[in-house]
Write a structure and sequence with these properties.
- The structure holds two protein chains of two kinds.
- Chain A is built from three helices and seven strands; from the N terminus they run H-E-E-E-E-E-H-E-E-H.
- By secondary structure, chain A is α+β, with helices and mostly antiparallel strands.
- In chain A, a hairpin with a 2-residue loop joins strand 4 and strand 5.
- By secondary structure, chain B is mainly alpha-helical.
- In chain B, helix 4 runs antiparallel to helix 5.
- Classes of the chains: A alpha+beta, B mainly alpha.
- Chains A and B meet through helix 1 and helix 3 of A and helix 5 and helix 6 of B.
Amino acid sequence: MDRLLTLADKILIPLLGGAVITSFFAVRTLTSEGTTVLIQVEGKTVHRAHLLEPGETVVEGVRGEVRVETRDGKVAITHAECPNHICVRTGWRSRGGEVIVCVPNKTVVRIVGETRGSVRAVTG
Amino acid sequence: MKTSLPLSPTRRITTIALLAAVGIALFVIESFIPMPFPFLKIGLANVSTLLALFILGPREMLLVVLIRVVAGSLLVGSLFSPAFVLAFSAGISSAVVMAAAKIVTRALFSIVGISVIGSVAHVLTQLLVVYLLLVRNETVFFLLPLLLFSALLGGVVVGWISSRLIRVLKDFTPS
């Protein structure tokens, strides 16, 4: 044991570091299968929907009505009473953790993943 | 300056006992360190495992691990609990892997490298055991990045501590 780290170590440790990073991104793409949609106005959840259940929900935002549609495992704001319609232009979202925001209406459509819940169950 | 001490049976047994005791002490002490998740450990007790491997040999190291895991679990009160099964299987498996790595690759890896190999083996065994015996849910593998990272970090830290200690003990070790 003359040196602290041998050549083999200097290959092994960065290799494992790479494995950590790879597994991190692998997990990230796998946990994006969220299925619950929360529609929140001014921070309060006013409606829950499911990505897998097709339907349309109309909620009352700050400025007017906001129409949210779920279809084919995706969700989008289809109509809103706001000046720029950025929320409508955001389009369809389907991954856990994603949000569609209508700022003038202070309305947020949030996708919550259920896979995250099971990880919590394991770690106690 | 290096004195070569013969490895008499007495010396062998007392060194095993000493290292096992050190391992137990480190294990118990580490159990008091709070961690966000219970399975995130630095694995300080493996300092004694590594010392056993590099001062004595693979057979002695396995003995040290065996004693340490059983007596340590007894002391922290987890004997015969799922935590014990986990610690036992992961500890033995990581020890076996470390011994095999050292025997097969000879001087290719330093103590730090062997320590990292052991900690990664430990963590992977833990995941496998949890999946196969405890929670039959594939989502446990989502913990892999976090576990791997802590294993890498812990392995390097433990390896570093061990290599510094070995340097001091080199004058007293046989061969």
